[in-house]
Every structure is written in structure tokens, then in C-alpha cells.
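REQUEST FORM: STRUCTURE PREDICTION
Request ID: SP-0412
Submitted by: Lab K.M.
Chain count: 1
Length (residues): 214
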Amino acid sequence: MNIILFGPPGVGKGTQAARLKEAYNLLHLSTGEALREEVKNQTELGKRAKEAMNKGELVSDEIVVGIVINTMEKASGKNGVMLDGFPRNIPQAQTLDALLSKRNITIDHVLSLESDQEIILKRLAGRRFCNKCGKDYNIYFNPPKVEGECDACEDGILAARADDNEKVHLDRLNVYASQTEPLKEYYAKKGLLRPIDGMGSPDEVFEEVKKILN
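STATUS: Completed
RESULT:
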């Protein structure tokens, strides 16, 4: 079983990816990690990617998709592969489809986590982290017992990360909407899109995922 998991920033994709990986014995394929591995091992694609990076250029979709395919073919001992947040746009999806077709590899499900933008912004901008133990909170959905103080460790102070502000998150959501949202129609036409309400608790969302995959 090969799946694609995508959704806007803050929808809880990372949480669901971890659960999917464990529950279904899937290879969790992060394009960034796969790219670094190819460069480290000095494969042909890795060398081409490194050359582009050394020139300050973006690694082409052809190279990235090729690396994804290579990683998928090495998924021995796994029940399939989960592409996390990839492809990011329609040209990448088209390149991926073409290379998968040549290798008789299929995508079985495209899981699209859906959420209201206002809720996502609160999830992102409301995050706070302890400066001692790193425990995370959310001032809207999971606040500490005492405002600004960590529940888990003495003298732990909660603070937002530098990039946890509404403008940054809104910019990211706009990029997602313009580049990645069109993939929903692309995969819907192929009969692969599985929309999932991402506004429930992690357990509730995962129950919906399991109903689709089981």
C-alpha cells in the first residue's frame, strides 16, 4: 500500500504520519531526508543534486522525483511507502506519475487532511514551548495550568518560537493554497483523493484514516 499524505501547515500531518508509519509498517519518506541520503552516498542523482545546490540552484523536480522513486524501490520489509507532503504541486505530481508508471508502481490513496484556516492559525500562533524540557503547549487548545509556566518542570518558562507569528503562518498557508491545493482536484479526477476532517483530536482523525485504509 502506497499513500500520499498532505494537508496545510498546522493540520496535524506530522502526528498522523507517525501513527500511520507504526500502525501499517510503512516507509515514511521525507524528500529532504531522502535527498540528503542520496548526496551522502554519492549516487548519480545525489551528485546531480549536489551540483545544483553548490550553484545555489533549486534541485529540479526530475531529480527530486527520481530520488523518491529510488527510495520507494528500496522499501524492503515494509508494507508500502508513505509520501509525506510530496508532491507539492501539479508538475511534481505529473513527473511522479510518469516515473511510477514506468515501474508499475501505484499510489493507492491520497489522504488530504482538511481544516478551517482560522483554527489552523490558532494552532500555529498559539504554540508555546518550555525553555527547559521542550514540552509544547497551545494557549488556545492545550494551555498550561499557570499562564507562561511549564506544568512538567520547575521554573520552566513558556515562549513562542521566533517564526510563530500570524504573518509567517498566513504566508505559508497562502503558498500551500496556491501551489498544493490544486492537487486535490488532480487526484480526485484519478479517484484517489480521500478527504479527512483534520479538526478533531489526533485519535479521532486517526480513526477516520483507519476507516479508509482498513
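NOTES: The chain has a mean pLDDT of 90.
Reviewed by: T.R.
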